[in-house]
Amino acid sequence: MSAPLIVLVGPMGVGKSTVGQLLAERLGTGYRDTDADIVAAQGRTIAEIFVDDGESAFRALEKEAVRTALAEHEGVLALGGGAILDADTRSLLAGQQVVYLSMDVEEAVRRTGLNTARPLLAVNPRKQWRELMEARRHLYEEVATVVVATDGRTPEEVTRAALDAVESKSVSPGDAPGTPGRRTLR
After folding, report:
1. Is residue 71 over pLDDT 90?
2. How far apart are alpha carbons 21 and 29 in whole angstroms?
3. pTM of the prediction?
């Protein structure tokens, strides 16, 4: 069974797609994004899926997209910001090399203006982003092998930090995500 070299998790707007593509280039491997897989399969945007079918329908599509990508993809894989909400998905991430890209709300505002087409941030984006992070942060940390702070860093700097973290913290069969051995790079 194949497995990705690196799985990226983190909140919307943290730069998973940009950093993922840079990591794939540096590692000489392929890049895949489960959100892009969903959009391609459905023929519509994630925002449209949320509006037309609701969040629970999107989450079911997301769960299947993540399971498929984890089984098929051997390069760098970026997951959607809410993929870690599903307990089965978190179980599938056990034993994977998972990099949690973190950022604070001010960085999120600076990067996205919190005015992009993010269905979960439609009303009072700053407050909703904070609430989403309060609900999700522990789940990102639970699945992470390493945590890389992205605040005030260029995508190239984040990529370099992620590569350094992955090289210095290889997951052995006895390691579990979220163990005290997890490294946080700031």
Report:
1. yes
2. 9
3. 0.83
